[in-house]
Design goal:
Region (Disordered): 87-106
Pfam families: IBH1_N
Keywords: Transcription, Transcription regulation
Domain IBH1-like N-terminal: 12-80
Protein name: IBH1-like N-terminal domain-containing protein
Number of helices: 5
Order of helices and strands: HHHHH
Strand content: under 5%
Distance between the termini: 36 Å
Length: 154
């Protein structure tokens, strides 16, 4: 008998590992801080940053040390940087790029390096591989958080 391997039954899927770690982190936040609903904007921002950090740390630890972006993200969290991901302004493509190695252009490659944690130190091929995996994990994170929101609102 063959068992289907999907995120609902597979305890080793990224979604499952992320969900367990994230829910545990949120539970710890609630238990350690005895948080009442945030009343002012400073409390809301503090709570938002704590939840965001918990989400990123849960995602990176669910992936483990095999990916450079997860190691870089955990390193940033451990070093307690104020902002894990800086807001980016969208820039247009570099016109007339003569770099035959890629089709992104030099400006877009630089942006990609800034967006993927740890991307600055990777060669281009590895950067693309890590980017694909990072995007998969971000999608899984969004799906899990939507399900949590759905279950908490019902």
């Amino acid at each position: 008998m063959k068992i289907a391997k999907n995120s609902h039954t597979n305890p080793t899927s990224i979604k499952t590992r992320f969900a367990l770690r994230f829910l545990r982190a949120i539970d710890n936040l609630n238990n350690n801080n005895n948080i009442s609903p945030p009343l002012n904007s400073a409390d809301r921002r503090k709570r938002f940053r704590a939840i965001r950090t918990a989400a990123y740390a849960s995602m990176a630890s669910a992936v483990g040390p095999n990916k450079a972006w997860s190691r870089a993200m955990l390193r940033k969290i451990r070093n307690r940087t104020k902002e894990m991901i800086k807001p980016r302004t969208r820039r247009g493509a570099v016109r007339g790029s003569t770099n035959p190695r890629n089709e992104l252009g030099l400006g877009q490659e630089k942006e990609l390096r800034e967006l993927v944690p740890g991307g600055e130190a990777m060669d281009f091929r590895r950067l693309l591989n890590e980017t694909g995996h990072y995007i998969q994990c971000l999608r899984a994170q969004v799906q899990v958080m939507r399900k949590i929101l759905h279950y908490s609102s019902t």
